[in-house]
């Protein structure tokens, strides 16, 4: 689901009432299959009050998935999330150099492609990796700095666009 499609962005007061449980935002979360939180390098969603609400509601719906995705600029290691020279602008085109990293509640199709592949999980190299080993290796590349922001999220210090 996409927040921008749940609420009229030009008339938020019409969609958001005194009780967030009655909002179009909450109704969208109720009918969604799951939540994919798109994170920038600063992990901004973890500083926003509506995103904290989204996390809370999503995690309470145990039958639904809750996943994270981020873009990691070229030249950045798994422990960091900031890179340099990852943006190239040419005339009317913008090119980003880097990779997309994903933490998922379950498996993704690429996790089942381990047959014949050699995967490094921690300090162990495994030929013919099993799905869990593929998932572990994939998620180990997710930037630790962003993961730490998720763990340290504080509703008390979260910000809103309009108070």
In a nutshell, what does this entry contain?
This protein has 163 residues and is α+β, with helices and mostly antiparallel strands. Helix content is 28%, strand content 23%. The longest helix has 12 residues, at 49-60.
Notable characteristics:
alpha+beta, three-stranded mixed sheet, two-stranded antiparallel sheet, 6 helices, 7 strands, 28% helix
Topology of this protein?
Blueprint: H1 3-6, H2 12-15, H3 24-31, E1 34-39, H4 49-60, E2 65-73, E3 87-90, E4 93-96, E5 98-103, E6 118-121, E7 124-127, H5 131-140, H6 144-151
Parallel strand pairs: 1-2
Antiparallel strand pairs: 2-5, 3-4, 6-7
In order across it, which strands form the biggest sheet? 1-2-5
| Computed Rg | 18 Å
Q: Tally the helices.
A: 6
**Terminal Cα span:** 25 Å
Question: What general outline do the C-alpha atoms trace?
Answer: globular
Strands, total number: 7
Fraction of helical residues: 25-40%
Please indicate the percent range of residues in DSSP E strands (runs of 2 or more): 15-25%
Class based on secondary structure composition and strand pairing: alpha+beta
pLDDT averaged residue by residue? 79
Order of helices and strands: HHHEHEEEEEEHH
Largest sheet: 3 strands, mixed
Low-confidence blocks of residues: none
Structure description:
The chain has helices spanning 3-6, 12-15, 24-31, 49-60, 131-140, 144-151, and strands at 34-39, 65-73, 87-90, 93-96, 98-103, 118-121, 124-127. The chain is of the alpha+beta class and 163 residues long. Strands 1-2-5 form a 3-stranded mixed β-sheet. It has a two-stranded antiparallel sheet with strand order 3-4. A two-stranded antiparallel ribbon has the order 6-7. It is globular and about 55 Å long. The two termini are 25 Å apart. The relative contact order is 0.15.
């Amino acid at each position: 689901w996409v927040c921008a499609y749940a609420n009229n962005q030009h008339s938020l007061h019409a969609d958001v009432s005194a009780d967030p449980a009655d909002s179009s935002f909450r109704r969208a979360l109720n009918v969604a299959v799951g939540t994919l939180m798109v994170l920038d390098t600063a992990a901004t969603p973890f500083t926003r009050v509506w995103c904290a609400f989204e996390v809370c509601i999503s995690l309470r719906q145990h039958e639904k998935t809750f996943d994270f995705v981020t873009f990691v600029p070229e030249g950045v290691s798994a422990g960091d999330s900031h890179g340099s020279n990852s943006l190239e602008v040419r005339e009317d085109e913008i090119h980003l150099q880097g990779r997309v990293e994903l933490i998922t509640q379950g498996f993704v199709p690429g996790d089942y492609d381990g047959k014949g592949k050699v995967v490094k999980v921690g300090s162990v190299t495994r030929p013919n990796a099993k799905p869990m080993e593929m998932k572990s290796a994939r998620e180990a590349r997710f930037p630790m700095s962003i993961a730490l922001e998720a763990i340290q999220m504080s509703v008390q210090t979260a910000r809103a666009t309009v108070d």
